[in-house]
TrEMBL record:
<dbReference type="GO" id="GO:0046872">
    <property type="term" value="F:metal ion binding"/>
</dbReference>
<dbReference type="GO" id="GO:0006298">
    <property type="term" value="P:mismatch repair"/>
</dbReference>
<dbReference type="InterPro" id="IPR003651">
    <property type="entry name" value="Endonuclease3_FeS-loop_motif"/>
</dbReference>
<dbReference type="InterPro" id="IPR005760">
    <property type="entry name" value="A/G_AdeGlyc_MutY"/>
</dbReference>
<dbReference type="Pfam" id="PF00730">
    <property type="entry name" value="HhH-GPD"/>
</dbReference>
<keyword id="KW-0004">4Fe-4S</keyword>
<dbReference type="InterPro" id="IPR000445">
    <property type="entry name" value="HhH_motif"/>
</dbReference>
<dbReference type="GO" id="GO:0006284">
    <property type="term" value="P:base-excision repair"/>
</dbReference>
<comment type="similarity">
    <text>Belongs to the Nth/MutY family.</text>
</comment>
<dbReference type="InterPro" id="IPR003265">
    <property type="entry name" value="HhH-GPD_domain"/>
</dbReference>
<keyword id="KW-0378">Hydrolase</keyword>
<dbReference type="GO" id="GO:0034039">
    <property type="term" value="F:8-oxo-7,8-dihydroguanine DNA N-glycosylase activity"/>
</dbReference>
<keyword id="KW-0227">DNA damage</keyword>
<dbReference type="InterPro" id="IPR015797">
    <property type="entry name" value="NUDIX_hydrolase-like_dom_sf"/>
</dbReference>
<dbReference type="Pfam" id="PF14815">
    <property type="entry name" value="NUDIX_4"/>
</dbReference>
<dbReference type="Pfam" id="PF00633">
    <property type="entry name" value="HHH"/>
</dbReference>
<protein>
    <recommendedName>
        <fullName>Adenine DNA glycosylase</fullName>
        <ecNumber>3.2.2.31</ecNumber>
    </recommendedName>
</protein>
Length: 345
């Protein structure tokens, strides 16, 4: 066992957080936790993990679920393609593997939405196969330990850090090793405030001893952020008008109020003219403004009250009391929470 592996695993046994998915070898539960925890804080992810286990205790129940119900249960977690991929992959397991979760890296990676990291995690945690995981935490630990400024978001960086990970991997106990390197990254080798003095790798970490941990890891690409302007149209009534968001992109197959997306910010007079021309209704007043931040998109949303119900083939009507049975983007949820009185007719 490498000094690296021994150091982090001894630390892990004494300091790790007790998380429900760490107490099982069930590949279904491990897979579920890995998908949920991508881009999600542990405190938030735990509640969703319990909800999914309660509603879908095995792969058969998830595979047979209605996608709309899966999306509703996922509501608030964001990155909804994860939920759709989760549902599709469960159907793959049932249809292609007779309901038995695959037990090889290759077959695990064949599942919808499963990449190298998730396949490596499931293979090691559930089946003790010697695959090193490389999530954001592991990338950060390795880049600092080896004091390597190769950009982690390039093909060259991915290969290099995979080599580093394989070099220090404890092949006799890959599950604990992988949990340990991720836990070190989450609790000690943090992005902005690393606790280097109390890190079990401090004596051999090159960035701590020879460089600057805060400068690592390096990324070559900046995230391109798009600003979008959504104008939601609402007629206050017990019968709520909604549309289902079709096609690729954010919130696919989820429900929102009828919306106009305009290229830039518009004044009430300009929006009113567009709404009158498209729907034949009049805007009465602005109800609510909200800025909704996603990783690649900033959405400026304005909610307008109109003077009568809209007409259109894509518009559906549902009772206000049933709206929470539908999968809603967090933006729409927040509007409803803040404007309950609008519908008290």
């Amino acid at each position: 066992m490498s000094h690296f592996a021994l150091s982090i695993q001894v630390w892990y046994r004494q300091n790790h957080r007790n998380l429900p998915w760490r107490d099982t070898k069930n590949p279904y539960k491990i897979w579920l936790s890995e998908v949920i925890m991508q881009q999600t804080r542990v405190d938030q992810g735990k509640s969703y993990y319990y909800k999914f286990i309660e509603n879908y205790p095995d792969v058969f129940s998830l595979a047979s679920a209605d996608e709309q119900e899966v999306l509703r249960l996922w509501q608030g977690l964001g990155y909804y393609s994860r939920a759709r991929n989760l549902h599709s992959a469960a159907q793959q397991v049932v249809n292609d593997f007779d309901g038995v979760f695959p037990n090889t890296y290759k077959d695990i990676k064949s599942l919808k939405g499963v990449g190298d990291y998730t396949a490596s995690a499931i293979a090691s945690f559930a089946y003790d196969l010697p695959y090193a995981v490389l999530d954001g935490n592991a990338f950060r630990v390795l880049s600092r330990y080896f004091n390597d400024n190769t950009p982690i978001d390039t093909g060259q960086g991915a290969k290099l850090f995979k080599t580093y990970a394989e070099e220090v991997l404890n092949r006799e106990d890959p599950a604990e090793f992988n949990q340990a390197i991720m836990e070190i990254g989450a609790m000690v080798c943090k992005p902005k405030n690393p606790d280097c003095e109390n890190c079990p790798l401090a004596d051999t970490c090159l960035a701590f001893n020879e460089g600057d941990p805060l400068q690592l890891p390096v990324k070559s690409k900046k995230v391109k952020v798009t600003t979008r302007h959504f104008h939601y149209l609402i007629y206050p009534s017990q019968d709520i008008q909604l549309i289902k968001r079709e096609g690729k992109g954010i919130w696919q197959n989820m429900y929102e109020f009828p919306v106009l997306e305009l290229e830039d910010k518009k004044l009430k007079k300009e929006v009113s003219a567009i709404v009158k021309d498209k729907y034949g209704v009049n805007i009465i007043k602005r109800i609510f403004d909200e800025r909704h931040i996603l990783t690649h998109q900033h959405i400026n949303a304005t909610f307008w009250e109109v003077d009568e119900m809209l007409k259109g083939d894509t518009i559906i009507v549902t009772d206000l009391n049933l709206i929470n049975d539908l999968p809603l983007p967090r933006l729409i949820e927040r509007f409803l929470e803040n404007n309950v009185g609008l519908f008290d007719l």
